[in-house]
């Protein structure tokens, strides 16, 4: 980091008066902090690493206090860095501000094949940390396992099910699969059925695997009750909000069966519960417009079923499909796998957590294991006039959310009623934009709030300063 960049970063921290996901503040006026291990671990384990800035007192309104001795401080930080596994190599920068010396230590992200980085004195389980907001939190056992599973190329889909045997697989589905597989892969033509099923991960040592049961089982949930989809429709914008008659759920269903069966039944659930509008085209023809593009929903559900984690740590967790008033969410156990990040989704080749499941479904239901799912979701949302889908990767879960914003906007009366109800309590620009799914508060206020102000349906709490940052809107 250049000295000018550090100075700019210090000004930013002092203006915002907070630590961040990638910034930690330490005073270090009376000596070097004695336990930096948690932060060294968490920054090393997160994408992009992080920066520790020494010489600012967070408890004194982020005042610049300087460090006791820049040379000795660097030495003590390096000593602690050597206690990490793998060893952390901080990059130091020193600047003078207000006549005082400040030091930064840039902590690089460690290679994924060496994660998690942990403090050797506490061990891998107790010494591995992850950054959450501005705090360092101890990793869960599953988070540690997910790194080790990637490094060791563990395929949990190939775990044998000791209680199952070949009789638990549907023979008709297996025959159809084998016929299609031999057509697609000529190298398998001369192999016998048993050998092919072993090579494709359906059987291991004569026993069905998790992949085999989920693809061809007569009833997979006999062995894994939670390897299913929990689907629900709720009345409001959060689980727990009650409908007009006090109902918690408008619809609620546990979807079971093989992966192809769960995919089709969950699509039927969405189709049954989403809104459909009849519109008149420019040519004067009537056409139906659904709340969500079904092709995008199919890709989201398929990705969840293929790429969820099937390890011992998550086999008691189901996929969740929730239809809220303003969005549809699908959440699956198991965060992003391997080297891919949220920003790279759909743009770079991703590591595949369950390659045998993915390969079999290419044959069975004509899926594409070529990283086209995310671009398809984005493209379908754009065609439908919906906002960009949101992807959230958070501590062992991965969630995709589709907004139905365009449906709400088109129904002006509905949106106006909702705004007036929401503004019975005075609301800020940011609160309004966030509640109605808009990324730009100024646009939302100009487009939807200002007309209501002009109609005297909405009042300003500070009318003499309409552009005040403390302004609120009240119905």
In short:
The protein is an alpha+beta fold and 475 residues long.
Explain this structure:
The chain is α+β, with helices and mostly antiparallel strands and 475 residues long. It has 4 domains: 3-139, 2-Layer Sandwich (Methyltransferase, Cobalt-precorrin-4 Transmethylase, Domain 2), CATH 3.30.950; 156-222, no CATH class; 229-407, 2-Layer Sandwich (Heat Shock Protein 90), CATH 3.30.565.60; 411-474. The protein contains 16 helices and 22 strands. A 6-stranded mixed sheet has the order 14-13-17-18-20-19, with helices on one face. Helix 2 (37-45) links the parallel strand 1 (23-26) and strand 2 (50-54). Residues 408-414 have low confidence and may be disordered.
Map the helices and strands.
Blueprint: H1 3-16, E1 23-26, H2 37-45, E2 50-54, E3 56-57, E4 63-64, H3 70-81, E5 84-85, E6 91-97, E7 100-107, E8 118-119, H4 123-127, E9 129-132, E10 135-138, H5 141-152, H6 171-184, H7 193-199, E11 203-204, E12 207-208, H8 210-216, E13 229-234, E14 249-255, H9 259-273, E15 276-280, E16 286-290, H10 294-307, E17 319-323, E18 327-333, H11 355-365, H12 373-383, E19 390-394, E20 397-403, H13 405-410, H14 412-422, H15 429-435, H16 441-454, E21 459-460, E22 473-474
Parallel strand pairs: 1-2, 13-17
Antiparallel strand pairs: 2-7, 3-4, 5-8, 6-7, 9-10, 11-12, 13-14, 15-16, 17-18, 18-20, 19-20, 21-22
Helix pairs in contact: 9-10, 10-12, 15-16
């Amino acid at each position: 980091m250049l000295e000018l960049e550090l100075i700019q970063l210090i000004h930013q921290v002092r203006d915002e008066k907070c630590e961040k996901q990638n910034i930690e503040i330490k005073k270090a006026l009376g000596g070097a902090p004695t336990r930096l291990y948690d932060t060294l671990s968490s920054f090393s384990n997160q994408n992009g690493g992080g920066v520790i800035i020494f010489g600012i007192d967070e408890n004194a309104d982020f005042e610049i206090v300087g460090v006791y001795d820049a040379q000795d401080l660097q030495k003590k930080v390096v000593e602690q860095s050597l206690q990490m596994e793998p060893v952390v190599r901080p990059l130091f920068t020193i600047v003078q501000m207000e006549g005082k010396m400040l030091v930064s230590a840039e902590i690089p992200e460690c290679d994924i094949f060496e994660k998690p980085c942990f403090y050797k004195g506490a061990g891998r389980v107790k010494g591995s940390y992850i950054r959450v907001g501005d705090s360092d939190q101890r990793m869960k056992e599953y988070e540690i396992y997910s790194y080790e599973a990637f490094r060791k190329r563990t395929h949990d889909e190939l775990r044998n099910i000791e209680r199952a045997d070949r009789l638990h697989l549907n023979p008709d589905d297996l025959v159809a699969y084998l016929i299609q597989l031999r057509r697609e892969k000529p190298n398998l033509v001369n192999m016998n059925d048993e050998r092919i099923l072993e090579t494709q991960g359906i059987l291991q040592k004569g026993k069905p695997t998790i992949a085999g049961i989920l693809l061809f089982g007569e009833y997979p949930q006999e062995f894994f009750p939670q390897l299913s989809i929990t689907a629900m429709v709720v009345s409001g914008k959060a689980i727990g909000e009650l409908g007009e008659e006090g109902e918690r759920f408008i619809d609620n269903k546990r979807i079971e069966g093989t992966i192809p069966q769960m995919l089709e039944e969950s699509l039927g659930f969405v189709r049954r519960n989403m809104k459909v509008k009849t519109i008149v085209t420019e040519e004067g023809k009537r056409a139906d417009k659904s709340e969500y593009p079904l092709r995008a929903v199919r890709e989201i559900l398929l990705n969840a079923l293929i790429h969820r984690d099937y390890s011992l740590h998550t086999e008691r967790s189901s996929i969740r499909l929730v239809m809220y008033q303003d969005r549809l969410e699908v959440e699956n156990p198991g965060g992003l796998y391997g080297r891919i990040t949220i920003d790279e989704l759909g743009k770079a080749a991703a590591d595949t957590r369950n390659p045998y499941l993915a390969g079999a479904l290419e044959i069975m239901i004509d899926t594409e294991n070529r990283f086209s799912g995310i671009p398809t979701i984005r493209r379908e949302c754009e065609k439908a006039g919906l906002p960009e889908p949101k992807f959230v990767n958070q501590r062992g879960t991965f969630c995709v959310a589709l907004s139905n914003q365009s449906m709400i906007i088109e129904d002006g009366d509905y949106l106006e009623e909702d705004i007036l109800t929401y503004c019975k309590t005075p609301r800020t620009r940011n609160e309004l934009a966030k509640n109605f799914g808009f990324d730009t508060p100024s646009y939302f206020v100009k487009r939807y709030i200002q007309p209501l102000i002009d109609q005297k349906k909405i009042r300003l709490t500070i009318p003499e300063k309409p552009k005040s940052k403390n302004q609120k809107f009240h119905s």
